[in-house]
Amino acid sequence: MDLVKYAPVGQYLPRNSPLHRLDPRTKILATMALAVVLFLLRAMAGLGLFAVASLALLVLGQIPLGYALRGLRPVIFLLLLTVVLNAFFGSGGSEARTLFVLGPLVATEEGLRTGLFVGARLLLLVTITSLLTFTTSSVELADGLEWLLRPLRRVGLPGHEIAMMMTIALRFIPTLLEETERIMKAQTARGAEFGQGNIVRRAQALVPVLVPLLLSAIRRSEELALAMEARCYSSSAPRTRMKELRWGLGDAVAGVLVVAASALLVSVR
Amino acid sequence: MRQPFIEVTDLRYTYHPHTPQAVVALDGLSLSIGRGEYVGIVGGNGSGKSTLAKHFNALLLPASGRVIVGGQDTRDRSATLAIRRRVGMVFQNPDNQLVATVVDEDVAFGPENLGLPSPLIRERVDRALATVGMTAYRRHAPHLLSGGQKQRVAIAGVLAMHPECLILDEATTMLDPEGRAEVLATVRTLHRDEGMTIVAISHTLEDLADAERIVALDAGRIVLDGPTGQVFDQLSRSPLARIHAPPMARLAHWLRQDGVPLPPGLFTVEALVSALAALAGRDGASHA
Question: What is the mean pLDDT of the segment spanning A16-29?
């Protein structure tokens, strides 16, 4: 099992596509706008259009479809849960048509439809947010976020610190996944069994993985803090950027396109 | 004698002072490191070598005594950033010192902290990556590189701040032989071509073979200090504080004990081979 390849969550994919070249602020704002639009949609037709647009963006961003699909794997469980729960307990009212009965549970057609709709919406939400992290490096993302959070500094929100924490979190996802894998192998070698028994047994089996992982993460954070200090980092001193934030023509075009697409989608609903 | 760059006078440092867990890490240590010198610091676990290194760039401040770096006292808070810029440090675990998810953005971290203008940062990043031979990987994700490559990126990150001195705190310990050779070659070039002051800390003497001078620590004190060949010869005669000479120095010592007239200061395979070849050539000539 290779966790790092299994779940490329939030992993930047260096390319030179038009999406990669956009200003990170444009991409963050566009993602936020599209997420809102996604929740305004009421019909499957709207979701269908949205899916087509997302696919087009993946192609434009030179993201291999297989890679994007692998990024969806971690949410599959959540997705199935959404569909199943909605099928059984979803809205339908008294005139809901029964699909099948499972003991005390009744699956309705309306419920299943709602489930599929909510599931598809979740899938598309993950897709467009992954699109942001696939095409924007953690540093760019942090710079953009810091800029967007700037107005909130007045009410005491530490924008720079939040952005720096996010950069580091993204940087350490693959490192900690690798470490999890190593610890799981070490515990397997000592007779631990994962993925066996009932759900309580499985959860218990994870304790000997999570404790060392947490301890090592704390040790890593201490070392990282020291290394950052050694490289003259201080959250109060003024920093500059190698890649300065700059709105360009591409950002204007992207902005217009996102607004137009959002308007179109919302009118279709 | 070269002009001193780092001057340590009667340095004492205790972890967790005034508690039952108090550990004296440095116990009245004095040391002077010259500008452009390549010094290896060796010692076992708990000898205080890492604690000493962290005093060179003001990550730790002396409990008593003084550390002067390039004329600046490390206890002077206003000089801390200037000292850290002048004295760069590479740590043991390459994963725990890389900040960004793309190589060139990580190298830019230091210069960005210094507040340099954007075009200058880019220029320095390009040069630093070229110096360590990692230009081809500039847009790669660090977590996909080998250990030696990650450590070279970490060195580039330090070089981009234009330091005068590079400290390697066990920087080769976690690497495989290939990665170790890559890093040592990079450091050798920096010392030879750029005249950079190098302080390499290790518990493996083989990794310090490039140093001009070896300082051996035990229990927070200096127990040996001298030119590399001399220190290795002495260690091969009598190991000190669990520090053993590298295999080639010991082999040369055994050969001398058996009556082979080898010159002193041999500790690499190449040096020993050429010394033996020279002896063989001379004997061959005298027999003819």
Answer: 94
- Contact call for A231 and B96, based on CB within 8 A: no
Model pLDDT for residues A47-77, shown as the tens digit of each residue: 999 999 999 999 999 999 888 888 788 788 8
Residue B226 burial (10 A CB sphere; 0-12, 13-18, 19+): middle
| Sequence ranges of the domains in chain A | 7-136+240-269, 161-238
**Full domain range(s) for residue B103:** 4-245
Question: Is residue A259 helix, strand or coil?
Answer: helix
Which tens digits make up the pLDDT trace of A91-117? 656 666 777 777 777 788 888 888 889
pLDDT at A230: 94
Residues of chain A with C-beta less than 8 angstroms from the C-beta of B59: 226, 229-230
| Residue A146 C-alpha, separation from nearest chain B C-alpha, in angstroms | 15
Q: What are phi and psi of A105, to 5 degrees?
A: -95, 140
Domain co-membership, B120 together with B181: yes
Alpha carbon distance B16, B23 (integer Å): 7
Percent of chain A at pLDDT above 90? 39
Whether residues B11 and B84 fall in one domain:
yes
Question: Is B113 in the same domain as B232?
Answer: yes
Clarify whether residues B133 and B275 are in a common domain.
no
Put simply, the answer to whether B97 touches A229 (Cβ < 8 Å) is no
Give tens-digit pLDDT for A209-259. Answer: 899 999 999 999 999 999 999 999 987 778 889 888 889 999 999 999 999
Partner residue opposite B96 with nearest CB, options A4, A178, A224: A224
- Minimum-distance CB partner of B121 among A230, A232, A242: A242
User: Distance (Å, rounded) from C-alpha B277 to C-alpha A122?
Assistant: 74
Residues B57 and B164 reside in one and the same domain: yes
Total domains in chain B come to: 2
Mark whether B46 and B168 lie in a shared domain. yes
Residues B178 and B68 both lie in one domain? yes
How far apart, in whole angstroms, are the C-alpha atoms of residue B12 and residue A263?
Answer: 69
Low-confidence ranges of chain B (pLDDT < 70): 1, 282-288
Contact call for B118 and A137, based on CB within 8 A: no
Q: Are strands B23-34 and B4-15 parallel, antiparallel or unpaired?
A: antiparallel
Decide: helix, strand or coil at residue B163.
Answer: coil
**Contact state of A14 with B114 under an 8 Å Cβ cutoff:** no
CATH number at residue B36: 3.40.50.300
- Same domain? B150 vs B256: no
ipTM of the complex model: 0.86
Cα gap B130→A266, rounded to integer Å: 51
Q: Mean pLDDT over all residues of chain B?
A: 89
What pLDDT sits at residue B285? 53
Mutation for testing the B interface, residue in A160, A231, A239, A244 having most B CBs under 10 Å = A231
Radius of gyration of chain B (CA): 21
Output phi, psi for B91, to 5 deg. -100, 175
Contact B109 A175 (CB under 8 A): no
